[in-house]
Fold this protein.
Amino acid sequence: MTSETTESGTARLALFLCLSLIVLVFAVAAATAIGDYNIPLRTVFLSVTNELGLTGAEIAPIQQSVVWNLRLSRALIAALAGAGLAICGAILQALLRNALAEPFVLGVSAGASTGAVCVIVLGIGAGSLSLSLGAFAGAFAAFALVALLSNGATSGPNHTILAGVAASQLFNALTSYIVTTSGNAQQARDVMFWLLGSFGGVRWPDFQLLLGVVILCFTICIWMARSLDAFTFGDEDAASLGVPVARIRIVLFGVTALLTATIVSMVGAIGFVGLVVPHAARYVVGTLHMRLLPACAMTGAVFMVLADIASRMIATQQTVPIGVVTALVGVPFFAIILYRARPQT
Amino acid sequence: MSVVAQSLIWGVRRRTIVSDVSFKVVRGETLGLIGPNGSGKSSLLRLLAGLKRPISGRVEINGQDIAQVPRKALSRQVAFVQQSAATDTNVTVADVVRLGRTPHRSALAGWSDGDEAAVAHALDRVDMASRKRQSWQTLSGGERQRVHIARALAQAPQVLFLDEPTNHLDIHHQIEILRMVRDLDLTSIIALHDLNLAAMFCDRIVVLEAGAVRACGTPDAVLTQETLHDVFRVKAHIVPTPEAHRPHIRFSPE
């Protein structure tokens, strides 16, 4: 690539990020306005500025509370979760050199469900452990098992994927065992519903925690973005380009596990975003990770907020699990990208 | 830059794959590594390039023990070209060659004029400058190998290691690649299968047998009927050519 095209690539990324930021702001505003009862955008805007202490407009306290305490925190968490899952997907697709890799490939969601079931059904922790903490612990247990099975992530990509498959099977079996032997039908349904993902019940403290984790993980990933590019032709090639392969793999697997586990423990295992968004972003900004990761973050954020809006609008009076919507909305969109990006031979 | 192997030993579990290998390559020399399948050529090449750690023994590049040199600093001095490395990623020729600048760039550094010049020079050197925007996936085997060599050259190394760079190439491209490597102003060490190509392009040849050095020297000194019979279990006639030290080998079917 010549320097002109490097610059045009950067310009393209900047344009893409600006546009997606504008779309994100509108999507978050829409997500805050739309709901069981709709609130005018003007009221949404004034409620937010009121809360920030910028204005002192007269707004019904109930509206202000719905906007600020329920919907805005929910929309922002959706954006962060989308961004986080998309980043994890891009990282794992590069590290494992597999286009099918996604955030749950290392068994994290299966582990989270086992952890959640232990808390909900078995009552481990006797009420002192929250569902989220149980899920987080389970997710990390699964990740630790995968790391162990794949020699601390130093063996090849396929080995790691197989270890992830084995861990997923094990933890799924454990979950099924616990649910069938000691759970009642209602508890099983609760777990299922939670696993399919929901942004109901998330509040500002969740947002602060997730924001911190996303910023930390994103910074580490950007720091290692150039090393990720070196994995294009495999681990050995990366090593011959001076990349400390084992260290990068361990750190980045750890980062993706932390990010995924945090998201899963908060909002459930929302599929599809982490698989599809990196492919879509690659199609727009190319394969270099320094550009791909920011583009993934923005695209994932927009996609998840829109999916959350859709999940509240598809069926009246109830919320469709977000994981169902991401797949329903995502597949047609993905089909278009696959069609347009087909090899030109 | 000189490359010195001192009593290198390497293996997996109880199987020794490289056993007590020592030799010296002087600056600017092209050394061929030949030997039957499983004789340890690829493993030895990886030990020399620092991609594997020997169980014992050491490798010195320009008098420095490479085990003491950090990974990144080492890859500014030596480059390694794998045999037919592939990717599914949709990258262009220029993207691949730009990867060669990885060891020269810090985590967040921008793309410098020096990087650009190194990439342009490397692409020129392998005659792929006009194809730099072409997609990697549309290249032929020979072109891919040339791009890999360009990527290695963009690393600005002083020593180049190539693992069977002519595999799967037609004879025209085999000769073209090896001529290109020989004419580079670098110390190169090449693992090769084709003995005649080794005789044609290498200044010296190391013959490996079961992980050990069986012979080391100029092509005519090493490629003898007895050695070929013992190591490769073939009958061959060595035909002298007008070029000094570069014999031609004719294999007989019996």
In short: Chain A touches chain B at residues 1-3, 5-6, 97, 99, 222-227, 229-230, 232-234, 236-237, 239-244, 282, 287-288, 341, 343, 345 (CB under 8 Å). Chain A has a mean pLDDT of 86. The domain at 3-340 of chain A is CATH 1.10.3470.10 (ABC transporter involved in vitamin B12 uptake, BtuC).
